Amino acid sequence: MTAAISADHLTIRFGAFTAVNDVSFEIAKGEVFGFLGPNGSGKTTIIKALCGLLTPTSGTGTILGLDIRKDAEEIKRHVGYMSQRFGLYEDLTVAENIDFYAAVYGLEGSNAIERKREMLALTAIEPYMNRRAGQLSGGWKQRLALACAIIHSPEVVFLDEPTAGIDPVARRALWDLLFKLSGQGVTFFVTTHYMDEAERCGRVGYIYLSKLVALGTIAELQRLPEASPPGTERIQIDTPKTAVMLDPVRHLQGVREATIFGRSIHALIDSDHLDALKAQLPGARVQIIEPSLEDVFVTLTNRTMEAAK
Amino acid sequence: MKHLFRGLVPICRKEFLHIVRDPGTLFFALAIPMLQLFLFGFAIDTNVRQVATVVFDESRTQDSRQLLERLANSDVFQLKSYARSKEEMYEAIRAGKDRVGIRIPYDYARHLQDGSTATVLVLLDGSDSNVAGQAVSTATGVALRESLARVIPNGKMPIEVRPSVLYNPATRSANFFIPGLIAILLQVMVILMIALSMVRERERGTLEQLTMTPVSPLGLMVGKMIPYGVLSFMELCAILGVMRVVFQVPIHGNLLVLLAMSVPFLLTVLGLGLVISTKAQTQAEAFQLAMGTILPSVFLSGYIFLIENMPPIFQGISCLIPATYYIRILRGIILRGAGIRELWGDTTVLAAMGCAAVLLAALQFVRRKAI
After folding, report:
1. What span, in angstroms and rounded, lies between the C-alpha atoms of B146 and B19?
2. A222-308 CATH, one of 2.30.40.10, 1.10.3470.10, 3.30.70.250, 3.30.450.40
3. Do B102 and B239 have their domain in common?
4. ipTM of the complex model
5. In this complex, do B10 and A90 lie within 8 Å of one another by their Cβ atoms?
6. How close does chain B come to A106, measured CA to CA in Å?
7. A4-18, B20-34, B43-57, B88-102: which has the minimum mean pLDDT?
8. Which pTM does this prediction carry?
């Protein structure tokens, strides 16, 4: 079976600047793929290349088996795209926005009416039909933007930071929607900064300094040797004075990195120092834990930065 | 063909909705050119009339008074003040109170009587060359007639020039200036409207969204041009109506031909607005660029200054300015009653410029993969 989305040694340069450096991955049909990375790491550029809006400098990719270099126009019909800025016309009503995008995608007559009804049902936005898009709250704008982005029943949907600036309830509602659609076979490629969102994804990729530095399921990433090098342990230190303790813990022998996590400290330490550490932290509860996704990414980021130097 | 203009209809419909939804912008877009038409239409009068004149009459004779009367009757001079000394006369001109000074020396009448040459000094404020030129020629004309009348006692002139002004016989400034003004007003309005509408989409991120849809660049561009084209065409009709009714400028040619020949001009300025919109990232930038097109269109299009009098390089530049051709069409049809036979060349150039501008904008759009 062909992958829904694939990138094959994709490299994109703007002059001397390499925005995307030799990135390869495959995403199966119906998968919800999370794409993470700091701002400016190349996430949006990859999306643009995959949608056929940018010609890669080298390498290639496919969407539903269509070549991103040659079949850009055909790809547009099968792909939905929703950006952080939503791309809504704020002076048009909800209904007019939906109608506009339906027409732009060439939906006509009963087909258009049917799809519009489906979108209204899916997003439950019907009560606001005649309201101007500009008057909607962030969460409703986002739902409308999604409705407009998938009005043409795309098989692949790119969401570029869809939940930036949206309240947690609306975020959860959006994710519920995504899983509903992915159950129907739609493939999602979602970029985000939120770790909790990434953890909802079946698989995640992490791009840093234009390079894809990690790719896999959450469990696979947690077991990555780069994230949890052999001979090290991740520990959680529960102490009443986390803020005061952080700096001393960082300077203890055998501690590679430490950060505050809620009311405890997470640290990466050399395994053979575990007992010594426990002895040096009287009154604190120390336990071995699995690394969180954030732990993994912070470790990977540090390692990539060191490698780049 | 269908692929080339894909998305045209929905874009066009949506753009009409934008226009209707924003009555404030619509009102200003339509009202400001009209307001300017009224302002400039009433204000601009290049005919030199009633120039403030200071007189220093040292002669104080019947002859000198007769000369002054003739000058006053010419309608060019308004004998406003009488100076008592040479210094007073100079001071009046330097202060800007008067633009022309006429000094008749004390021996004026005596010279006339004994048949030698009497001199009259005409002082001119050269800071307005138009006024100065007109004043000199009128004063010379009056003096010449006076001299001839004295040489030929029976008053019969051997030669008399009888000017008969064709087209615009009253030589009213309004007739000459308003047709040109139409081109300038339309150009500013059209370029601003379409460029701002496009850049607004860029600023709000909807343009990025559109590039992800199957809308073609030409579909987008032409879809935007149609609503603004219709709007500016309506404005043109309104301006022509005001010109005819309020300013009493008759249209000697065929109105329908004029309207038809206006379409290529509108196409060109719409295209120009689109080209500007591909260069500008923000509405402020688009505004600046649009304003930058005004001065060349005013000064190098023949609107104010004769193209024939310009150095060759500027004549070349004027050929690149769409307003040059449209002003020729407007003046030709409105003032001279010209028609298709005389003006098809200008119309063709405009149409070609228009298509080129739209294609250029579309190409820019494709190459930049506009974001």
Report:
1. 66
2. 3.30.70.250
3. no
4. 0.84
5. no
6. 8
7. B43-57
8. 0.82
